[in-house]
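Dock alpha-D-glucopyranuronic acid; give full complex structure.
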Amino acid sequence: MKRFLLGALLGFASLAHNVFAAETPAITAAAELPLQTQSLQTPSLQTPSLQTYSRDSVSLNGEWKIIVDPYENGYYNYRYEPFDQQATPSQNAYFTDSKQKSPGDLLEYDFDKSASLQVPGDWNTQTDKLYYYEGTVWYRKTFDAPIAKKGERAFLYFGAVNYRADVYLNGKKLGVHVGGFTPFHYEITGKLKDKNNSLVVKVDNKRHADAVPTLNTDWWNYGGITREVKLITVPQTFIRDYKIALTSFADKTVSGSVLLDGAKGGEKISVKVPELNIQQTLTADNHGKASFSFKADKAQLWSPENPKLYALQISTGKDKFTDTVGLRSISTQGKQLLLNGKPIFLRGVSVHEEYSAQGGGRVKNAAEAQQLLNWAKGFNANFVRLAHYPHNEDMVRLAEQMGLLVWSEIPVYWTINWNNEATYQNAEAQLTAMIERDKNRAAVIIWSLANETPVSDARNKFLARLATKARSLDDSRLLSAALEKHYRADNANVAVVEDPLAEHLDLVSFNQYIGWYDGAPEKIDRISWEINYNKPVFVSEFGGDARAGNHGDVDKIFTEEFQENLYNKTLKMLDGIDGFVGTSPWILTDFRSPRRHLPGIQDEFNRKGIYSNTGEKKKAFFVLKNYYDRKAEQKNTNN
Ligand code: GCU
């Protein structure tokens, strides 16, 4: 029996030494590389993560000055040599944020007199001029340093920047980050001026064949500083990371560990869970790490029906850190999926991190994340597949508070360059950052490695290596990926899921579009399935486009009636699959896509939403709600 209990302790000590090495990525290496590959050669791995969500911070959100720079004139001189590899960068290097000092000064930019954008937020939906823009935009924020107590340390934290960020503080390069959906940070202790600090970020959202994702996606390439930017000050020795979870469901043992940064060893650490009357004092080893465990016989286990969260208080010396955590067990047993030892059916939906109800794009605050999750609750969902990249931290934490289980995935999507080591390192860095950030979120039960990737030896090796890495970081959650189906050679009515990657996964998940991309809806009625794995089966996508308000006969494509009929037939078919434990239909709401051009119907939106992008319920909404209501009733009668 395969049991996965949340809480495998991470070897913090093994990561601690990375902290500084990772924070100063190989910028020099970039200079030695041919320019066209620079953007992929810079390691973006920063472990262990800096847990910041519940820390006091100085927000750098709001208005930033910007310069749209398609020729990257602010980064390369006229010989196309990067300014930032020069000993004394020219004043025309935009990251120096230079000012004209004398009348004869030749400066061809001025942030103070330039346009502005709001951070967080994509640039595409803030101004028509940038709607389709793929290239570099320079962002500049000036700020005064927070009053720091003696010996305090300062960190600069970015929730995410799509796609590459070159970060400079007061004209000095802090580093480069590659990957559009994961957090990163830089220690800036001693690098701040009391007044008028200049933070410059070169944001480049150009797509690359060797990038992750690659050139081709079915979502809008929203560029910009798309998540929050904040300044955190902490004592010399502070709580950098921690892990806590239910590590034995049978005897309700909770285990965890704390990692201090700046520790000499021997420091005392207090861990409290007041509601469970837990208080322990630990002693840090010379890596700053300390482990703990306790029995939690009285703990209420987290579940969609009872998303119980406990206050966790960790303190040491001058630093105090609080968070809220849930305790639960997720496991598989043959074809069964078990939450807290009981079979669970995942009443899911796929979700893009896009809230375009008022014309916007990338989700930019907790209110927008809340709205999307409320819409999912509207049809009695207990699960969200956050596609196709790690979503913002608000989305995951709100899902946890609302009792929504989470599938979280990295954008190893479609035709990634499986033969490029830099591409693998990029994918691994994004996987690591995703797991590091959300390893304490009880709602997250599945890490997904890939979506609809064509089978080949190179792809199988790449993903098997990624699976091994994922388990080394966290062997407590389930691994999956959205596989594809094909038909039996001797019988076109038998759909088969058979993929070499499946042996590395705990859940056999796949996308299928019978009745949309694959035949007409009538075809659904005659299909049976062959899925020969002794593992639970999850259908990670199905669906079809319908323009809200567009009505007609069931055989008229792009009508709500067509989509409604497709849902009815598909759900009936899926119920017949042995080991079927749930589904996440594609998709919660219509979303922008550069691949969808049918005037009057798509208008650059993928219309597979169960809701329109403005929250109108389509007829398929009621089919799915009815189906999930019945599943929920069955669960209640079974328990
Ligand atoms: C694929 C893919 C989605 C895409 C969907 C569609 O399954 O995973 O990202 O949007 O199909 O074609 O609508």
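Observed: The chain has ten helices and 33 strands.
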